[in-house]
């Protein structure tokens, strides 16, 4: 049921990612996407809990994406990377527009038990507990398209606009699969004004989950075309460093 991978004990390099995916409504996906993007062929939400070495040290994180299209290309729009390392937050945003922000992440596997918990601004907004049940087919190699947005708002107290207008950042990752394990478990989403997954992307299907040990074959990150700056203006004010729409760095005001 569970094939053993050859790796050095305690090595963070070979940690599997916990992938959780569910369907929401197309209207919900459309609501969280900025101008220039539209919902993908299926209204999917993907939550990826990971432990990946970045700059030589482990980074625990939760990546939240929704399926989308940009100029006909299917891909994933990144709403946020909740991570436990401050060093990577600001440089990732400054250079690439990658929406990383601080959070407390618990992620573990003990034999066949898998657990994850994510807390931000004292709200534990996501938990998952499950058990590995079977080995799945690895499938073919594939390319994953992810979209970030890079911009710099105008240095003025009252005037809108940008010093660097919003541009799409195209991220293409090339993957193989070393191992894929089905996980049966429970996803718990809780209300949080800082991480409004439950409110803005409510599940409409039973989540599916799996442990995925990727083979990293390549990655490119490139600045793409500009977005309509006037249309994007309302989306420039976000919750923290995420891509959730907010108000002056905090949650939307009611």
Tell me about this structure.
Pfam families: ADC. This is Acetoacetate decarboxylase family protein. The protein has one domain (12-150, 165-225): Acetoacetate decarboxylase-like (Beta Barrel). It has helices at residues 26-32, 87-96, 197-200, 229-232; strands at 17-23, 38-39, 44-54, 57-70, 73-83, 100-102, 104-110, 113-120, 123-135, 142-153, 162-189, 208-226. By secondary structure, it is mainly beta. The mean pLDDT is 95. The protein contains 4 helices and 12 strands. Strands 1-3-4-5-10-11-12 form a 7-stranded mixed barrel. Helix content is 10%, strand content 53%.
Total helix count? 4
The CATH homologous superfamily is called Acetoacetate decarboxylase-like
Helix content: under 10%
Total strands: 12
CATH class: Mainly Beta
Strand content: over 45%
Radius of gyration: 18 Å
Instruction: Encode the helix/strand succession as letters.
Output: EHEEEEHEEEEEEHEH
Shape field: globular
The termini sit apart by 50 Å
Query: How many domains is the backbone divided into?
Result: 1
Query: Could you say which structural class the secondary elements and strand pairing correspond to?
Result: mainly beta
Low-confidence residue ranges: none
Assign the CATH architecture: Beta Barrel
Q: Characterize the largest beta sheet: strand count, sense, and whether it forms a barrel.
A: 7 strands, mixed, barrel
Strands of the biggest beta sheet: in what spatial order?
1-3-4-5-10-11-12
In the CATH scheme, what's the topology name?
Acetoacetate decarboxylase-like
